Amino acid sequence: MEFYNEDFLIDGFFTRVKQASQRVLMMDYDGTLTPSHKNRDKAVLYDGIEERLQRLMESGHTRLIIISGRVIEDLKQLLDFDTYPEMWGVNGAQQYLPDENIIRLNIPRRLAEDLAEAEKWAKKEQLTSFLEKKPAGLALHWQDRTDEEKEKVQNAMKKFEPCKFTCISDPLFAGADGALQLATDMPEEFLEKL
Q1: What gap in Å lies between CA 144 and CA 159, rounded to an integer?
Q2: Beta carbons within 8 Å of 174's beta carbon, 6+ residues apart
Q3: Which of the following CATH numbers is that of domain 10-106+170-193: 3.90.1180.10, 3.40.605.10, 3.40.50.1000, 3.40.50.1100?
Q4: 176 — pLDDT class (breaks 50, 70, 90)
């Protein structure tokens, strides 16, 4: 496994985690706990991850939170846990607590207006096939798209310069590869003792 910080010692990290009085593990769903998939309904957990997360929750020593841009109802349909963990859906606009309460945060009027304007822009730029409308946001997805399609999105986004938009496909500790590798590299004895 490679790290951005070459001085990072994985054994020391797990030792500090084990000794911590309080622990929280927050993991993104799409592209971290699951492979990225063009058809979002087929994005299911990597083999073995569900069992590891279930054991971590059952240990009672670590607060597990799954974060997603999806609505919580969609997450629950994709997960097959005996007991669901805490989940933050719609990038934090919804919160599911283990006692099965869903809290929907109000969307400020200005944000709703800005989202409506952004959606109009995406339609004008003929980007609706890339667009995912969310209760508290919009996303332009381009994974699994052709280079020509990605260029179309980049050209449309030039309107917003000097802001820059970058597609990160292989980040370490900033997405699927790093977080998933960390979870799979965790020694079994840490799962038992956490």
Answers
A1: 24
A2: 168
A3: 3.40.50.1000
A4: very low
